[in-house]
From TrEMBL:
Coiled coil: 396-452
Bias (Low complexity) ranges: 877-890, 904-921
Biased composition (Acidic residues): 757-766
Family annotation (Pfam families): Kinesin
Family to which the UniProt record says this protein belongs: Belongs to the TRAFAC class myosin-kinesin ATPase superfamily. Kinesin family.
InterPro entries xrefs: Kinesin-like_fam, Kinesin_motor_CS, Kinesin_motor_dom, Kinesin_motor_dom_sf, P-loop_NTPase
Compositionally biased intervals (Polar residues): 676-689
Protein name per the record: Kinesin-like protein
Keyword vocabulary terms for this entry: ATP-binding, Coiled coil, Microtubule, Motor protein, Nucleotide-binding
Length: 938
């Protein structure tokens, strides 16, 4: 569809040059040139101010006044009512153009308002032309080409064009080509011709076909790929363009330059018919019209000027003709090559923009007037604009071509897609692998943290279990001490008990204090461990998938739970070991008490029966002293605290004992023993259950123990028959003195002693299980005396050397202890240990063979029982000194009677154990009557 369009006329006023500025009126000079008719003076020679004046006044809306009247002159005119003779007649012509650019307007702004609208049509198939028209030196070349630092319309146009091509490249295939020529002295020259190419005589010829299409024969066409390339091409062409300095312009273009940009656009998706659009944008920089008088050109320059004027005159005529409807039938295009080339732009299918360049001063008064007049005429020119579109009906062969092209395109797209997917899959796989590796690393780190902290935390928990047991013991001990403290006028034995309990409290507190450090360190480790696990759980990698944090969190939670379980287990072990230690201590002390009681019963029987008439009070006292010493030693060995002596003048309540023990005594008639559990509140001293001295006679002899009844095996291995005496006081026995069975009925001992079977157990226990027991006790109480089997000097236990054994060096420690054992018995903290320590301790102890009792391989439990032999005094001394002598006595005994059956040894058991101070508050469960043995202390 054709659209009628007018030429867009824009006027650009160039800035005042320096030369002109020097000749304009000084704006500060109030003595302006006088134009009145009364003055006889003319302009002062050499005075240049006021030589020129500005001849254009314009408004933003495109209105322009050429040679506006001077307001002062107008005032004079109005005042006088007539124009005085000689007064300059101002043209004062008013024009209206599409747009007027003042001197300050930038190149980009000129492009935006003139050429850019044409570009919109170029890509839609509408031709366009931009040409600059004006007198020489008015800024045409500056507007069209500009300078490298301030490029003109060509560069801005091409930059915009290539940007739009890029935007449409996906949908359209757009081809751009350009040509650049000049018309110099009516010759057409190719500005893009290869260097050295021959130029036809008379220049390139213009061809015009029957369809009135004008072409230039042999014109070079180049295909640029970017705006910068176009700019370079134009700069190179301008350099080849004919330019000469003239009086009016130092860089005067002596030719008309025509740059043509051909744009062909076809959609990328071909249909049955292809809608291809073509458009040409012509950018023309005309040579400036010049008056020969003004330019003062001579010779060649004058010829150039004449040709320029001729072609411009032809242009003007064409414009006039185009504007006159009557003459429109014939437009004199053929009068010049310029008009022949512009035929298409002026009267054809083209949108045209005419940029009229004018000078602002009166130096170019006439040229500016003519230019503005032409421009005013030109805006009357109407052009028909239609879209250059070509519907190409495809040939069948072209369909195949199109199909092949489409297939290629499909293949290309598929390959691209597959490649992208493959790359994507690879990337995903790599990312997943990296994530899995990173997660595994964090899991391994968490596991390593757990492994590193496990030993410390478990040891701490074990110690905590021990300490909890110790605290419980301390509570009970303190309560008891408080009870004793509250007693009014306490007797000596109460003081003894208090002293013992306080010593136990001190020892227990010392252990707790020492363990506090271990527990504190373990707590710090636990906190650090939890923190580190938390940090590891919160770690997150950039390439982790969504499951990775969950996996790491679960791993951390699992490790924490496992650690808590292990800690709980070790704490429970600690408590268990403490309990075992208590049981061992109780077992030992109960045994000691039972045997002592049995021996005392035996002694009482002997005294009452009178069979030991020869025994003096001194002998009795000595025997009792031995018993006391042995018990004290055992006591010290077991609980690590010596039993305080009464000391001072204060006596115990022994003499005041006058009542039967409140606690039910063990049955002496062979009936099953009654289990008693003394409470702390009613606990009495060990003598509280004895009758008072006054009633000693009424205290019946103990009945014969069940083991001494008929058929029972005596300690000598002889079968007891009838009233056979099985227990006797070990009176000083002379070597030749034979054993005499007491004729009196023997008292029965209700506290069972181990039978031979028990003895066997006892022996085993002495070797193995006692070691376990020892270790157990040690674990519980965190204190153990390695080599407890040694008959330790009682005095040594009062100041135990405490040694910590670390879990990872039991052997070393035990070995060292083994050596130290030889000289100084030590108590060892084994709160952090478990069974492996036990085994090692047992082994070490056995290997050490420390102590006369344990090292004596020919040991029998019975032999370990001290005998009141003739040299019993030495034995007693030795026992008091460390028990070495006690080991010799059994050896002798054994030597004398090798076939003597085993006897249970209180001392053997007692001396094998040394445990942490413990509370001995449990019920005493007596062994079954069947296992009762006769007292064996001879
Ligand atoms: N708008 C403008 N801003 C700054 N300088 C300008 C402007 N227009 C023209 N000039 C300067 O004026 C001088 C003459 O300009 P130019 O050469 O473009 O004139 P012309 O019309 O092309 O002359 P000719 O017809 O002789 O080639 C140049 O030095 C140019 O830099």
């Amino acid at each position: 569809m054709d659209n009628a369009a007018s030429i867009t006329v824009a006027v650009r006023i160039r800035p005042v040059t320096e030369w002109e500025a020097a000749r304009l009126p000084d704006p500060l000079d109030t003595t302006r040139p006088f134009f009145g008719d009364g003055s006889l003076a003319s302009h002062v020679q050499g005075h240049k101010f006021g030589q020129f004046r500005k001849i254009i006044a314009y408004e933003e809306d495109g209105s322009l006044i050429y040679d506006p009247m001077d307001p002062q002159a107008e005032a004079i005119y109005r005042q006088k009512g007539y124009l005085p003779p000689g007064t300059y007649r101002y043209k004062h012509r008013k024009y209206q153009y599409d747009v007027v650019f003042g001197p300050e307007v930038t190149q980009q702004a000129v492009f935006e308002r003139t050429t850019k609208p044409l570009l919109d049509g170029i890509l839609d198939g509408y031709n366009g032309t931009v040409f600059a028209y004006g007198a020489t030196g008015c800024g045409k070349t500056h507007t069209i080409s500009g300078t490298p630092s301030d490029p003109g319309i060509i560069y801005a146009t091409m930059a915009e064009l290539f940007q739009r091509i890029d935007e449409r490249r996906e949908d359209y295939a757009i081809d751009v080509s350009l040509s650049f020529l000049e018309i110099y002295n009516e010759e057409i020259r190719d500005l893009l011709a290869p260097a050295g190419a021959d130029t036809p005589r008379g220049g390139l010829a213009i061809r015009e076909n029957s369809a009135n299409r004008v072409t230039v024969a042999g014109l070079t066409e180049v295909v640029p790929t970017s705006a910068d390339e176009v700019n370079a091409i134009v700069q190179a062409g301008n350099a080849r363009r004919t330019q000469s300095p003239t009086h009016a312009n130092a860089t005067s273009s002596r030719s008309h330059a025509v740059l043509q940009i051909n744009v062909t656009q076809s959609p990328r998706t071909p249909g049955v018919t292809e809608e291809r659009t073509m458009a040409t944008l012509s950018i023309i920089d005309l040579a400036g019209s010049e008056r020969a008088s003004a330019t003062k050109n001579m010779g060649k320059r004058m010829v150039e000027g004449a040709n320029i004027n001729k072609s411009l005159l032809a242009l003007g005529n064409c414009i006039n003709a185009l504007c006159e409807p009557k003459t429109r039938a014939h437009i004199p295009y053929r009068n010049s090559k310029l008009t022949r080339l512009l035929k298409f732009s002026l009267g054809g299918n083209c949108r045209t923009v005419m940029i009229v360049c004018v000078a602002p001063t009166s130096q170019h008064l006439e040229d500016t007037g003519n230019t503005l007049a032409y421009a005013n005429r030109a805006k009357e020119i109407k052009t028909k604009v239609s879209k250059n579109i070509m519907d190409v009906d495809r040939h069948v062969g072209q369909y195949v071509e199109a199909i092949n092209r489409l297939n290629d395109e499909v293949r290309e797209l598929k390959a691209k897609l597959a490649g992208e997917m493959a790359v994507e899959n690879e990337a995903v796989k790599r990312r997943r692998a990296n994530a899995a590796k990173a997660v595994e690393n964090v899991r391994a780190e968490i596991r390593a943290l757990a492994a590193k902290s496990r030993t410390m935390l478990c040891a701490g928990s074990f110690t905590a279990g021990n300490t909890a047991a110790s605290q419980a013991k301390l509570d009970v001990l303190r309560i008891r001490v408080k009870e004793l403290d509250s007693m009014a006028d306490p007797s000596s034995e109460v003081e003894v008990e208090k002293g013992l309990l306080r010593a136990l409290i001190n020892a227990e507190e010392e252990c707790v204090r020492k363990e506090a450090d271990t527990i504190s360190k373990a707590m710090s480790s636990a906190a650090l461990f939890a923190t580190n696990i938390g940090l590891a759980q919160r770690r997150k990698g950039d390439d982790w998938d969504e499951m990775a944090p969950t996996i790491v969190k679960l791993e951390g939670d699992t490790v924490l739970a496992e650690m808590r379980a292990a800690q709980a287990e070790h704490e429970r072990d600690g408590l268990k070991q403490a309990l075992k230690g208590q049981a061992a201590v109780i077992t030992t002390l109960v045994g000691m008490l039972a045997r002592t009681n049995a021996l005392m019963v035996d002694g009482v029987q002997m005294l009452r029966s009178g069979s030991e008439a020869a025994m003096s009070n001194e002998d009795i006292a000595n025997r009792l002293q031995i018993l006391i010493d042995l018990n004290s030693k055992t006591f010290t060995d077991v609980i690590g605290v010596a039993v305080p002596t009464t000391g001072g003048s204060k006596k115990t309540g022994f003499a005041a004992l006058s009542t039967r023990p409140t606690t039910k005594r063990p049955s002496v008639n062979g009936a099953p023993p009654t289990r008693t559990r003394p409470s702390m509140g009613t606990r009495r001293t060990s003598l509280s259950g004895l009758g008072s001295p006054g009633r000693r006679h009424s205290y019946r002899s103990p009945r014969k123990p069940s083991s001494l009844r008929a058929g029972a095996i005596t300690t000598t291995g002889r079968k007891v028959s009838g009233e056979k005496k099985s227990v006797r006081w070990a009176v000083p026995i002379k070597p030749d003195e034979s054993y005499v069975e007491p004729s009196t009925p023997k008292a029965k001992v209700s506290i069972a002693l181990p039978t031979s079977e028990s003895e066997e157990w006892e022996d085993d226990r002495t070797d193995e299980s006692s070691a376990v027991e020892t270790s157990s006790m040690s674990l519980d109480a965190a204190i153990m005396t390695i080599g407890a089997s040694t008959a330790m000097p009682s005095g040594s236990s009062s100041g135990p050397a405490v040694r910590k054994i670390k879990m990872d060096e039991p052997k070393v420690v035990l070995d060292s202890l083994k050596e130290e054992d030889e000289q100084t018995p030590r108590r060892t903290v084994l709160g952090e240990h478990n069974q492996q320590v036990t085994a090692s301790a047992s082994k070490a102890r056995r290997r050490s063979g420390i102590g006369s009792l344990r090292s004596d391989r020919v040991r029998r439990r019975s032999s370990l029982i001290p005998q009141l032999s003739p040299n019993y005094k030495e034995v007693a001394k030795a026992a008091a000194a460390g028990g070495t002598a006690t080991g010799e006595a059994p050896a002798k005994a054994h030597h004398k009677s090798p076939k003597r059956p085993k006897r249970s040894s209180l001392l053997g058991v007692l001396s094998s154990s040394r445990v942490r101070p413990s509370l001995l508050r449990i019920g005493v469960e007596q062994p079954p009557s069947g296992t009762v043995a006769k007292p064996s202390w001879k």
